[in-house]
């Protein structure tokens, strides 16, 4: 199977180069890039699913030793699961992207978008099958840089360049922690090979703890843990929609993969790791969804929801760790399985939602929710699939989001009941947090779907809107169907994550808890049946009776205009009021004054608490501390020569003293 | 088999009667005769016989609202045990599905309201969302309280493990759960002090204003759906206070009806004696309920070890 | 009987929450009266074991506590409210929403502390120590976040109540006489405060404690 996956990497890289070579002919580079990527994804998806189902484990060592060690690739159920996510979602997004990029033909060179897209997919695949630290980090950096060039695709816009820089800085800061972690692990094991990490000296408790913290910060920056998520809401709106779909659907999950892979090196986890991740999950989830509520930019809103869902995944991982540290196999399995399945689910519905947002941007030219409305009648397919994505992301049955949240919930309940009380309390803290996140997410997506698609058009941008083309429509339909399939048939979906969850939790799947999944299918069928029956009942009742059309009842007011509809800002105002202390708000208001007010304006800007209240003061303090060091910068060459000489002398003395001392 | 038939019959036939009992209690307080006990049935029957008017603004989401909402509430009713401690569709982990089905119903009601493009209905949806947010943690914390001693997230296990000794004062945790659930019940079913079902001013409404544009059979579904929702959440509360064991047969049915009637009267008393809260104070009321349930949960957790 | 002690303690916890959640001073006082009554019953419920001389002692102490905490102090404070003519806590420095959440958080911390703390002898019921801590901390929360002098009185009362509950763990060692002494001190303190509040409000037309800081230097 590794051979097939290697083939798909080769295909991706070849098509990336092909697209780059053909950069003068947009259409042919689009064709080359897309065909190569689709082919690679089909091959890779088939290979990784069959590896997942057969439980195959493979490894491959390159014959020649490099100065940094051998190239070591491997495939286990965790890799196979993430490969499945990457290939399935990337394949669908590639098709969508082919349609989405059509609009740019003739306006700008398409080659970079295609080359870096394929390179990024190849890098993600490579890092999932990498089995040594150096190769892993190389793939990781290629992925990060390819993403940077994709985010800055429309680089003539100031906000895009800014977002790209934020992303690059965040990602490079994050990777510094990973370098430190791999250096520590490599030093301990005497090699960067992953097998040596586990086979050699098991890291001591304190070293494991330090590595865990480094991994949480480093991988968390990519995944979007609070407060290092701040690059996400900037980068996603800046990037083209198919890029944001892949970035949010798959790339940020590489942080989750990295963290899970690291956990496998670090031996038995102490319980505080689980507590830490549950805490991070709660804060990330709630902060993400609260900030999402405050957004009026559709893609920014979706980006904050990615933060929220990463919080849910962190909750699942935390519960898994809590269970694992107490040798409670049920809790461990349910936590990990919930987290993993949510990785797949979020990849599906979030790429679907970003594609929907892309179609809206395509049709109307705006991402501002407040100027849309009534799009449903103009874009029925996009509307329907967006609705499916919205219901799924809120975790509502009978769609896929519910299944993974259900696993996390059941894990939390089980943890609360079975673990020693103080750790049980941590596990159970996840329950109200998930409930709050769920309710806030539902409110947010009622707002997003309702204000964008329902009601009347608020501005004229909507009137010329048109449904997305076929290549953009089909990926959305297929993704929506996948969401429904996982939701209605969770037993099958859990088969995908069970081997990986088993590997992580080192325990067999709990039969009883998973047996309940068939009951979810039963209830989902019952729900569908009831809805169908009620629809038929209404149809029968209304047959032969007067069914008329009329304007919406305006409560006696005769001349309502679309501008009078409830806006997104007014929808969330009562919701956010209890949480206002948590979100930095800047309000500028002017008037209305006097008896005959002429003009009144009201502006409200809701910032990001993590950026404005945590990171900005911290970085200011850091810069202030570092400004003392500026003394050594005098701008005179002689002085710099003194530094060099001094360093040289000190190093020499140190080394020589070491020698004579021995 | 008989138990399933009884369950479905109870779920389908009884809910509007609860509304009748509440209204009778309120009339008694006001010194009126009030509407007949079966008025809600009459209303629903009348609406089912009518035609319908749809706004030109609306899409199929508006028409799907009442159907999906009623369907998911009925589904939730099939998951929750009524006259015994088993339910036709119960399983391990059903408490979560139960709460999320209620969420699904709310989602589609709100979406249907936004579909009309009316400012009033948007306002109703916004308030519904705002009050659902603090109510949800209270609901889940209460469910956790009853599930922790049972060591399983299922209604059947929870009700089987529930001690009858509650009335001996043995379990302050359950009392906290019951109080929090009562608050959640009032909020979810738009009763006083959160919302006033009798208000006639659109600006002060929450639930009623969301369904202004529905008519005929659609509105019948909505009325019936809210009755079922009240019935189902009240049944949950009845079980916390008065766990009905398995195989009680008709005694179980009688116990459930007794409990439902008592709760209906209690709601009537609350509605007659308590003033409605200012809208900005409602979240605080529900946050209070959540914190109370949190205290109850702490008691349940720590008592397990002590 | 001890099972009922947990119910009483739950009532104490709920009244803490209510005191933090309400902005009406009268409701505050009423809640603290209810809390006082619950506390008065607490030793009776905890330590009664048949009819004996001890029961008589207990009854006297309960009656004393009931009289002072549930009747005399509330009456004094509500009179102060009437005379100073303040009905509401205006503009608390921590919003009511957040202070309810904070009170819940303090409760959680108290539960955690109760598992860590090692007592010379096990507490009679498991709720006793956490509720004692929570009441104490809620008292501090009220003192820190509110501005009215009258709410401050309630805050001190909460702190005293917390100490009283905690005292129940040591009830066998410490004679109730000590407790009565503390009560008496408190009563005198509230007397003085009531009189002072009256005078201040007569002089300055308000009893906002934040403005007391202008008295420095």
Task: Provide a concise account of the structure shown.
Chain A is mainly alpha-helical and 662 residues long. In chain A, 72% of the residues lie in helices and 4% in strands. Chain A contains 23 helices and 5 strands.
Primary descriptors:
heterotrimer, B: 306 residues, mainly alpha, 12 helices, 69% helix, C: 217 residues, 7 helices, 0% strand, globular
**What is the global morphology of chain C?**
globular
Q: Please give the count of helices of chain C.
A: 7
Shape of chain B: globular
- Uncertain residue ranges of chain B: none
The radius of gyration of chain B is 19 Å
Approximately how much beta-strand content do the residues of chain B carry?
Answer: under 5%
Can you tell me the number of structural domains of chain C? 1
Q: Percent range for helical residues of chain B?
A: 55-70%
| Cα separation of the termini of chain B | 42 Å
By DSSP (H or I, 4+ residues per run), the number of helices of chain B equals: 12
Number of strands of chain B: 1
Secondary structure class of chain C reads mainly alpha
Provide the gyration radius of chain C in Å.
Answer: 18 Å
Low-confidence parts of chain C, pLDDT < 50 over ≥5 residues?
Answer: none
Oligomer: heterotrimer
* Cα distance spanning the termini of chain C: 56 Å
Average pLDDT taken over every residue of chain B = 89
The fraction of residues assigned to DSSP E strands of chain C is under 5%
Major β-sheet annotation of chain B: none
Largest β-sheet summary of chain C: none
| Class computed from helices, strands and strand pairing of chain B | mainly alpha
């Amino acid at each position: 199977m590794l051979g097939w996956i290697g083939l798909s990497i080769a295909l991706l890289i070849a098509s990336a180069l092909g697209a780059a070579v053909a950069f003068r002919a947009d259409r042919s580079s689009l064709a080359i890039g897309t065909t190569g990527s689709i082919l690679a994804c089909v091959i890779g998806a088939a290979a990784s699913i069959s590896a997942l189902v057969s439980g195959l484990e493979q490894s491959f060592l390159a014959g020649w030793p490099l100065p940094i060690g051998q190239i070591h690739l491997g495939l286990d159920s965790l890799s196979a699961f993430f490969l499945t996510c990457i290939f399935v979602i990337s394949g669908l997004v590639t098709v969508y992207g082919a349609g989405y990029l059509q609009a740019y033909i003739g306006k700008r060179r398409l080659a970079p978008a295609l080359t870096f897209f394929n390179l990024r997919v190849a890098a993600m695949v490579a890092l999932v099958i990498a089995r040594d630290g150096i190769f892993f980090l190389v793939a990781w950096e290629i992925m990060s840089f390819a993403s940077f060039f994709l985010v800055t695709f429309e680089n003539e816009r100031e906000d895009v360049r800014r977002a790209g820089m934020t992303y690059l800085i965040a990602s490079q800061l994050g990777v510094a922690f990973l370098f430190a972690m791999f250096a520590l692990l490599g030093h301990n094991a005497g090699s960067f090979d992953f097998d040596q990490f586990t086979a050699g000296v098991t890291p001591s408790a304190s070293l494991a703890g330090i590595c865990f913290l480094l991994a949480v910060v480093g991988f968390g920056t990519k995944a979007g843990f609070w407060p290092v998520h701040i690059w996400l809401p900037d980068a996603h709106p800046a990037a083209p929609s198919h890029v944001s779909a892949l970035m949010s659907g798959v790339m940020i999950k590489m942080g989750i993969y990295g963290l899970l892979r690291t956990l496998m090196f670090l031996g038995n986890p102490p319980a505080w790791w689980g507590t830490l991740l549950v805490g991070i999950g709660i804060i990330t989830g709630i902060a993400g969804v609260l900030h999402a509520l405050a957004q009026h930019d559709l893609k920014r809103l979706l980006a904050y929801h990615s933060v929220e869902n990463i919080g849910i995944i962190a909750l699942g991982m935390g519960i898994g760790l809590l269970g694992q540290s107490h040798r409670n196999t049920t809790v461990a399995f349910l936590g990990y399985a919930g987290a993993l399945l949510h990785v797949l689910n979020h990849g599906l519905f979030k790429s679907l939602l970003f594609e929907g947002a892309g179609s809206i941007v395509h049709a109307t030219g705006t991402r501002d929710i407040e100027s849309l409305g009534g799009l449903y009648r103009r874009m029925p397919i996009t509307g329907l699939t967006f609705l499916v994505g919205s219901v799924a992301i809120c975790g509502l049955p009978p769609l896929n989001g519910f299944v993974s949240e259900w696993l996390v919930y059941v894990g939390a309940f089980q943890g609360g009941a079975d673990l020693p009380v103080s750790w049980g309390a941590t596990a159970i803290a996840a329950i109200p947090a998930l409930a709050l996140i769920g309710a806030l997410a539902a409110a947010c997506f009622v707002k997003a779907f309702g204000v964008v698609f329902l009601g009347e058009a608020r501005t004229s941008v909507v009137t010329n809107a048109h449904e997305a083309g076929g290549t953009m429509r089909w990926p959305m339909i297929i993704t929506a169907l996948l969401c429904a399939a996982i939701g209605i048939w969770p037993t099958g979906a859990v088969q995908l994550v069970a081997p990986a969850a088993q590997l992580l939790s080192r325990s067999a799947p709990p039969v009883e808890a998973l047996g309940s999944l068939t009951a979810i299918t039963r209830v989902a069928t019952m729900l569908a049946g009831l809805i169908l029956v009620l629809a038929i009942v209404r149809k029968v009742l209304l047959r032969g009776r007067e069914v008329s059309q009329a304007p919406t009842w305006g409560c006696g007011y005769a001349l309502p205009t679309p501008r009078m509809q409830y806006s997104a800002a007014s929808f969330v105002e009562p919701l956010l009021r209890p949480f206002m202390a948590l979100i930095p708000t800047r309000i500028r208001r002017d008037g209305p004054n006097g008896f005959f007010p002429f003009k009144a304006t009201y502006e409200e800007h809701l910032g990001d608490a993590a950026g404005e209240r945590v990171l900005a003061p911290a970085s200011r303090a850091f810069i202030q501390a570092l400004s003392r060091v500026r003394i050594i910068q005098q701008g005179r060459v002689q002085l710099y020569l003194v530094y060099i000489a001094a360093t040289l002398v000190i190093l020499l003395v140190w080394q020589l003293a070491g020698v004579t001392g021995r | 088999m008989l138990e399933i038939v009884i369950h479905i019959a109870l779920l389908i036939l009884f809910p509007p009667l609860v509304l009748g009992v509440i209204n009778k209690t309120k009339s008694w307080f006001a010194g009126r005769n009030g509407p007949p006990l079966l008025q809600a049935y009459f209303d629903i029957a009348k609406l089912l016989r009518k035609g319908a008017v749809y706004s030109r603004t609306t899409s199929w989401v508006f028409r799907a609202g009442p159907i999906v909402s009623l369907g998911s509430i009925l589904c939730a009713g099939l998951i929750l045990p009524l006259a015994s401690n088993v339910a036709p569709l119960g399983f391990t982990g059903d408490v979560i599905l139960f709460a999320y089905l209620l969420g699904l119903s709310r989602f589609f009601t709100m979406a249907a309201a936004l579909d009309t493009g009316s400012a009033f209905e948007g306002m109703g949806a916004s308030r519904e969302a705002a009050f659902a947010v603090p109510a949800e943690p209270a609901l889940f914390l209460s469910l956790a309280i009853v599930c922790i001693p049972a060591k399983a997230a299922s209604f059947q296990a929870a009700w089987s493990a529930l001690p009858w000794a509650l009335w001996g004062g043995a379990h302050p945790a359950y009392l906290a759960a019951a109080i929090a659930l009562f608050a959640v019940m009032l909020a979810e079913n738009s009763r006083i002090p959160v919302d006033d079902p009798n208000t006639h001013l659109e600006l002060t409404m929450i639930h009623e204003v969301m369904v202004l544009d529905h008519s005929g059979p659609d509105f019948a579904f909505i009325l019936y759906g809210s009755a079922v929702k009240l019935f189902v959440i009240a049944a949950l509360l009845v079980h916390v206070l008065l766990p009905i064991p398995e195989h009680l047969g008709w005694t179980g049915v009688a116990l459930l009806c007794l409990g439902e009637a008592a709760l209906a009267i209690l709601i009537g008393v609350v509605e007659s004696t308590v003033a409605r809260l200012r809208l900005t104070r409602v979240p605080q009321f529900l946050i209070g309920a959540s914190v109370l349930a949190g205290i109850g949960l702490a008691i349940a957790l720590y008592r397990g070890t002590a | 009987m001890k099972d009922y002690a947990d119910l009483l303690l739950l009532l104490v916890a709920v009244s803490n929450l209510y005191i933090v959640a309400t902005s009406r001073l009268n409701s505050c006082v009423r809640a603290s009266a209810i809390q006082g009554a619950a506390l008065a019953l607490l030793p009776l419920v905890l330590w009664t074991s048949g009819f004996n001389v001890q029961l008589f002692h207990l009854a006297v102490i309960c009656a004393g506590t009931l009289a002072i905490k549930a009747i005399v102090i509330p009456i004094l404070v509500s009179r102060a409210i009437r005379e100073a003519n303040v009905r509401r806590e205006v503009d608390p420095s921590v919003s009511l929403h957040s202070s309810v959440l904070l009170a819940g958080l303090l409760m959680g911390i108290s539960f955690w502390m109760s598992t860590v703390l090692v007592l010379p002898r096990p507490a009679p019921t498991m709720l006793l120590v956490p509720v004692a801590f929570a009441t104490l901390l809620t008292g501090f929360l009220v003192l820190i976040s509110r501005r009215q002098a009258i709410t401050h009185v309630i805050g001190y009362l909460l702190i005293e109540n917390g100490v009283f509950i905690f005292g129940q763990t040591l009830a066998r060692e410490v004679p109730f006489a000590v407790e009565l002494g503390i009560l008496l001190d408190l009563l005198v303190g509230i007397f003085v405060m009531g009189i002072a509040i009256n005078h201040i409000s007569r002089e300055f037309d308000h009893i906002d404690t934040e403005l007391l800081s202008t008295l420095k230097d």
